[in-house]
Design brief:
single chain, 154 residues, mainly alpha, 3 helices, elongated
Length: 154
């Protein structure tokens, strides 16, 4: 037995594909026979006058006892409640918008104050930058430093 199994040749890829194709065609044939049998059974029932009942789920016009139409009073109450909720939401939104406007105006005032402070600082920096040049000019006028000499030595 051991020698018999060892003597079986290994199949190549083409042989494997042929076996798979044969198995698929056998299964396809069986599926075809099952479908043919089902059609023959339906035809026999149709000829004999037997009809199969068809149930549609859910039934399109089915009525359940718990479903009662709402009265006009209930509808009006729901409508009034919905309108009250809408009015509440609108008033809250208006309050939120007013609060945002106040915050935006406050930020605008702060930005304007900061701009003024920055402009003032820029003027001061310009004054401080010009100060060494004035001091050098005054020292030249008094003769402490020479015209080409800015280190304070004669």
């Amino acid at each position: 037995m051991r020698y018999f199994i060892a003597q079986i040749p290994q199949p190549n890829g083409a042989q494997v594909l042929i076996w798979i194709g044969c198995a698929g065609s056998v299964l396809g044939g069986l599926a075809f026979l099952v479908m043919l049998f089902n059609q023959l059974a339906k035809a026999r029932n149709t000829i004999a006058g037997k009809r199969e009942s068809v149930d549609l789920h859910p039934q399109p016009l089915e009525f359940h006892e718990g479903m009662t139409p709402a009265s006009e009073k209930d509808c009006r109450a729901r409508h009034d409640l919905a309108m009250k909720r809408i009015d509440d939401l609108q008033s809250r939104r208006e309050g939120d918008v007013a609060s945002l406007h106040e915050k935006i105006n406050g930020v605008a005032r702060e930005v304007s104050g900061l701009k003024t402070a920055v402009d003032s600082m820029a003027d001061r920096i310009g004054t401080v930058e010009a100060l060494p040049d004035r001091i050098i000019a005054m020292l030249r006028n008094f003769g402490v430093i020479g015209r080409g000499n800015t280190d304070g030595k004669h």
